[in-house]
Amino acid sequence: MLLLCLAVLCLGASSPCAAAPHQGSTNPTRNKLLLISFDGFRWDYDRDVETPNLDKMAQHGAKALYATPPFVTITSPSHFTMLTGRSVENHGVIHNIWFNTTTQQKKQYYEAQFVDSYWDNGSLPIWITAQRQGLKAGSLHFPGTAATYRGETVGVSQVEPFLYDHSNETDWRLNIDKVIGEWFHQQDLDFVSLYFGEPDDIQFQLLDYGPLGMLLPKEGTLEKVYKALKGSHPHLHVYKKEEMPARLHYGNHPRLLQIILIADPGYIFLPLHSVKGDHGFDNEAMEMKALFRVVGPDFKKNRVVDHIDLVDVYALMCHLLGINPEINDGHLDNTKHMLVNTGGDNN
Ligand SMILES: *[C@@H]1O[C@H](CO)[C@@H](O)[C@H](O)[C@H]1NC(C)=O
Ligand SMILES: *[C@@H]1O[C@H](CO)[C@@H](O)[C@H](O)[C@H]1NC(C)=O
Ligand SMILES: *[C@@H]1O[C@H](CO)[C@@H](O)[C@H](O)[C@H]1NC(C)=O
């Protein structure tokens, strides 16, 4: 449930969108890249209401009919997939909630942002990779911004304050001005990620139910618990971790618990104990698909593609920034048809 826009701001005197001098750069034509995520909007939102600016973006750039987020379709896991190009079972940020099964300690979305070891689990977000290759990166409110990765943080950051009011439009405008005016123009950053939380504020929802559940049965009770749950409800899917469908990429990380429960869209359940979620249905469900727009000199205009996977956004961003990607699970080939000068039909 993410609306994602990638806006590539071209640098150069003739560009209407960014005209700051690029001090100290060896590549005067280098793109500036802005990744914007609006959390909580569906792929078909632009069909329900007037969205003149989103329509304009589609005209001036490319759009996908919908974008498929990674499973589990909740904020921290899916945003970290965009930043790393890794599926959730590979980057390890498996839930909004951090938990320790030994101590039963839990941290909700906001608190979990500050657990470095949770985020820094072997995958580097694009900010760090860009910085290591000489670029300047910033992030405003994007999930993962507060953490330190291999001793390094994103160079310029604004971490979301506790109990932040996501619905304040004055603040939206101030944040946009900050990113464009201060960060891109004055501080000459190359890449910024910008996050807008959904208006009904995920961190207020300390719900103990949802469509995803994970259980760690007591020693020796795995089979018993599994058998009791399996087939207990037609809209509840019960998997041992190792039998999770491979397409979900959510079975192969030590943080995932032994039994994983997934409810069909429209259903939620009360787990017996342990960890839970708030959204997070199967990423094949159309209700989970996201909106996707890209605009900038590297993209074809008025181009509509069928769909894209959010796991492929990372490789695209590295390409746009001219940096070498880390090992990732996406492919530039899957988004190349939106780019100019990469073959395919010109449109
Ligand atoms: C969970 O808590 C135990 C006991 O304090 C500790 O040894 C372990 O490292 C913790 N695990 C994580 C992932 O923090
Ligand atoms: C990732 O986290 C898991 C479990 O919390 C831990 O066992 C593993 O060593 C971590 N890997 C890295 C590279 O940090
Ligand atoms: C909205 O944000 C502005 C700027 O940060 C602040 O001055 C104002 O008090 C906020 N409005 C509400 C209703 O909280």
Automatic annotation (TrEMBL):
Keyword Signal among UniProt keywords: yes
Signal sequence bounds: 1-19
InterPro entries in alphabetical order: Alkaline_phosphatase_core_sf, Phosphodiest/P_Trfase
UniProt keyword list: Signal
CDD domains the UniProt entry points to: Enpp
The protein's name: Ectonucleotide pyrophosphatase/phosphodiesterase 7
